[in-house]
Amino acid sequence: MAMFFTFLTFFKNSMMAYPECSYNIVHCTRSLTFLMWTLPIVFFLFIGHTSQLDEATEYPPLFEDALGTFFENLEFSKRNSRIEQFGLNEFDFIIVGAGSAGSVVASRLSEETKWSVLLIEAGGEEQFIMDVPLLANMLQFTDANWKYKTMPSNNYCLGFVNRQCNFPRGKVMGGSSVLNYMIYTRGNRRDYDAWADAGNFGWNSDIVHKYFLKSEDANITLQDPDFHQKGGLLSISEIPFKSILAKSFVQAGYEAGYPVRDLNGRSQIGFNFHQLTMKNGLRHSTNVAFIHPVIKRKNLHIRKNSQVTKILFDETGRKAIGVEYYRKKKKYRVLAKKEVIISGGAINSPQLLMLSGIGPKNHLISKGIKVLRDLPVGRNLMDHVALGGLQFIVNDTNTISRDKILGNANIIHDYLKYHNGPITIPGGTEALAFFDLKQPNNADGHPNLELLFINGALGSDETLRKNFGINDTLYNSAFKKIEQKNAYMILPMIMRPKSKGWIELKDQNPFRYPAIYPNYFSDESDLDIIVGGVRISQQLLETNAMKRINATLWDAPILGCKHFKFDSDEYWKCAARHLPFTIYHLSGTCKMGPIGDPTAVVDPNLRVQGFEGLRVIDASIMPEVPAAHTNAPTIMIAEKGSDLIKKSWGIII
C-alpha cells in the first residue's frame, strides 16, 4: 500500500511539474508523452524491483520529494516541440538527418534569421527514457535504432547469429548521439594534421580545435585549461559515479607506469574515467543541446518520421534543388533555394547519394540507376572494432548489474534527487586508456589502441549478449558459467584501422537496407593491435590495485578457437574474428579530399564534387577515422561545416 501511495504521489508531482496541462491540452501533449514513458519505467525501477527486497525494507524518506526535485531540474517544458507545418514546400536550406551532425547544422544555420531551414528526420522525438545513462545498452531494441546488420562473412562476425554483426544507428531526433554511450573524446592532433596534409586545406589540428571548443560547456575537474571551454551548448561532464572496479582499473594503469591525465588535453596516452555528453545525470544529445533551446525559432522547421529517398536536381543534373521524402506512406517534395545538406551518417548518406545517381558507375548501372556522376560513394568504410569476451573474474567486489541497481530504492532515490550514483554509468562503461604500441615509451604518442573498461561481463547482463547478437552455441560454451560471478570486461580496440570496407545498394528500393561489408581484419596487422591490448590488460593484473580485488583472466576458450592454445597470439586473433565488437564508429563512406582526388566524394568545403548546392556534413566525410569515439569529431565537423556554408553565402564569421 505504501508503494501504491508513493506511485500516486509521483504521478501528482509529475503533473504539478507541468502546469500547462491545466489550461491547454496541446501544450500538455509533450508532458503526457513524457509520462507515458516515465511512469512505467519508474514503476519498474522502484516498485517492480522492490519485490526482490525484504518486505521490511524502509523506503527512502521523502522519495516523492526526490521525484519532484528531479522533474524541476529536467525542465522538460522547454522540450515541447512546435506543431509541424507541412504546408511549406520551399526553404533556403534542407538538412537531411537530425543526428549528431544534422542537429548542429540546423541550429547554427537558423541563427541567421533571414534564412529558412528545414530539418528532416526519419525517426521520432527523443524520449526521456533514452536519456537515462544506465539504460544506454537497452536502446538498441527500440524503434530509435535502424537495426542494420552486416552481410554474412566467413572472416569475421563468426560467433554471431548468421555470422552477421549488428550495426546500431540512431533513427531519432539526435541520431546516434541518443544511442551511444556518451563518451566524449576528440582524438589526437596528428589525426587532423594528416587530413590537412592529404590536401584538405582548413582541417588541421589548430583550426578544428576551435570548433571542438565552440560547442563545449566543460564541467570537469581534471582538465588542461587550454583545451576546454565553458559556455557552449554541449555539456561535457566527468562521470558522476566511480565504482571500486573502475577505480582499480585506473589505479592499475598508474601503478603500471602510465599517466592518469585529461585524455582531451595536450596528449592522449594514459588512463582516466570518462568525460561524457551528460548534464544533471542525463544524456545530453545533440537534439537536447542544439535543437531544444532554439525550437521556437520561426525560421527553423522540423519534419519528423519522414524518410528522404531521393535528392532532386535541375535539368542539368548538376545542381541540387530539393529532396523527395515519404511520411506515413505518402510522398512529398520540398525545394531548396540555396543548398541541400546530407547528414544521414556513414550508412544513410552514401545510400541516399547512390539512390540519387551519385556513386560508383558500374554499381549504379547494375542496379538500373541513372548515373549523374561516377564517385567512390560507399567506399572507405571504417570502424573502431574491438575484441569481445576478454573478461576477468574478481572477488566479492560487486560489479554493475542493472538488476542489482534497479532493485535498490536508495540508489534510485539518489539518482532522482541528486543526479548521482551508478544509474549515471552509461551502459556499464566507466573508464578507458589510450596507447601507442609503435612508441610504447612516448608519453605524447599517437594512439592506435584503446582499452575500454566495462563494469560487468557478457554473463552479467543478458543485454550485452543480445546487443552484439552472440549465438547460443558460442555463448553457452564460453560464457554461461560466468553468469553468477562478479567480473569486468576490457575491450581492446583498434583506433587506427588499416582494414576498410564498403557499402552497396541491394537494389533501387530506398526502404531496403544497403549491403554493409566492414571487411574487418582484411589487413591482418590490425589483429596485432588486438593482441597488444590483451597483453597490456594482462599486465595490469600484476599491479597491487588488481591483486586487491583478486582479478584473474576468465579462461574458458571460445568455441571455434579451441584448436589454438589458449592465450596464444593465434588464439586471440581467432577470438577477434569470432567476437568483433563494433564500437559504432562508422565513418569515411563519403570521403573528403582535394578536388580531383579520385578517392574523394566531397571537397574540403564538404561540397559533393561536381555538383552545386549539395554538401555532406557528417562522419562519412572523414578521410581517416580519428583515434577517438567519433561523436565529438562529428559535432566538430558540423560546427565547421556550418561556418563553411555561412561564409560561402557572405556571412562574416
From TrEMBL:
It comes from the Eukaryota. GO terms for molecular function: flavin adenine dinucleotide binding; oxidoreductase activity, acting on CH-OH group of donors. The active site is at 585 (proton donor), 629 (proton acceptor). InterPro entries: FAD/NAD-bd_sf, GMC_OxRdtase, GMC_OxRdtase_N, GMC_OxRtase_C. FAD binds at residues 172, 308. Belongs to the GMC oxidoreductase family. PROSITE patterns: GMC_OXRED_2 (PS00624). Its cofactor is FAD. This is Glucose-methanol-choline oxidoreductase,Glucose-methanol-choline oxidoreductase, N-terminal,Glucose. Residues 1-17 form the signal peptide. PANTHER family: GH23626P-RELATED, GLUCOSE-METHANOL-CHOLINE GMC OXIDOREDUCTASE.
